[in-house]
Amino acid sequence: MKRLGNLTRGILKENPVLVLILGTCPTLAVSTQASNAIGMGVAATFVLVCSNIVISALRNVIPDKVRIPCYIVLIAGFVTIVQMVLEAYAYSLFEALGIYLPLIVVNCIILGRAEMFANKNTVLDSALDGIGMGIGFTLALLVMASIREILGSGTWFGLGIPWLKDNGIAVLTMAPGGFIVFGALIALVNKIINREPKPDDENYCAGCPSADTCKQFGKGGEAHVHTNG
Questions:
Q1: Please, what's the b/e burial string for 110-137 (b: 16 or more CB within 10 A of its CB; e: otherwise)?
Q2: By CB neighbour count within 10 A (0-12 exposed, 13-18 middle, 19+ buried), where does 214 fall?
Q3: What contacts 24+ positions apart, CB below 8 Å, involve 9-13?
Q4: What's the confidence (pLDDT) of residue 212?
Q5: pLDDT at 195
Q6: Residue 10, H or E segment
Q7: How far apart are the C-alpha atoms of 152 and 106, rounded to whole Å?
Q8: Average confidence (pLDDT) per 10 residues, the chain, 229 residues
Q9: Is 16 exposed, middle or buried (0-12, 13-18, 19+ CB in 10 A)?
Q10: Distance CA 200, CA 198 (A)
Q11: What is the DSSP string of 26-69?
Q12: Under 8 Å between Cβ of 129 and 62
């Protein structure tokens, strides 16, 4: 269960973009088209998983005083591999991602997981954490890019959508539109993960620390008054 949690928490509960608010620059920059979002997400996931694995494997070897420079060197090596592969086999995507591809080296998501997780956990756990965070990053990019591309340009993965193609909301393709969609998605995700239980939810009163002492606990038809805030 712990390893399943390491894999899944980055998808929603600790989504690196919409909850932890990391990697904001590439998120806003490349989320104008769904194809670019997928490309950036896959590239970042590859670097994240590989760097997590290597850093975890070497965590007892890397001197503590120089761990951050060592992390950056390792991450830069994997980013270089991604750049060379994209330039050779997906040149249009390589051009579309532009400067944000080499900037993966200093992406806060990757450095943050290296410092906070891979440096303290096993190789397998670090790999699962990297996969989960990568999936969460990719999904956040894809959702945001899909909204902006569909409503802003009237296309999705470059395919025209009837009526919307000629009636797009141009502001969504620009920086202000990116911030609007970004803020709306952050609000939605936080609403989902921080949802307060309702009084009629199953086991609502039973889960309250004050349930045993509350005078109204167990009385049918009366509301349960919480005293613990």
A1: bbebbeebbbebebebbbbbbbbbbbbb
A2: middle
A3: 9/132, 10/129, 10/132, 10/133, 10/134, 10/135, 10/136, 10/137, 11/132, 11/135, 11/136, 11/139, 12/136, 12/189, 12/192, 12/193, 13/193
A4: 57
A5: 73
A6: none
A7: 30
A8: 82 90 89 92 95 94 90 94 94 90 89 90 93 94 94 88 85 91 93 70 53 49 44
A9: buried
A10: 5
A11: HHHHHTTSHHHHHHHHHHHHHHHHHHHHHHHHTTTTS-GGGHHH
A12: no
Alpha carbon 107 to its chain's center: 12
What pLDDT does 226 receive?
A: 46
Are 48 and 114 within 8 A, CB to CB?
no
Q: pTM for the complete prediction? A: 0.80
Alpha carbon distance 161, 178 (integer Å): 20
Q: Please give the Cα distance from 73 to 46 (Å, whole number).
A: 16
* Cβ–Cβ under 8 Å, residues 107 and 25: no
Name the residue ranges covered by the structural domains of the chain. 2-193, 200-229
Rounded to whole angstroms, the Cα distance separating 52 from 226 reads 43
Q: Which tokens in the block code for residue 134?
A: 């990568």
Phi first, then psi: what are they for 147, rounded to 5°? -60, -45
Q: Which residues pair with 155 in a beta bridge?
A: 160
Q: What pLDDT is attached to residue 229?
A: 44
Write out the two tokens for 222.
């009366």
Contact 225, 214 (CB under 8 A): yes
Q: What distances in angstroms separate CA 105 from CA 36, 71, 127, 133, one per listed residue?
A: 18, 9, 18, 16
Give backbone dihedrals phi and psi of 159, rounded to 5 degrees, phi first. -90, 130
Contact 36, 148 (CB under 8 A): no
**AA identity, residue 212:** D
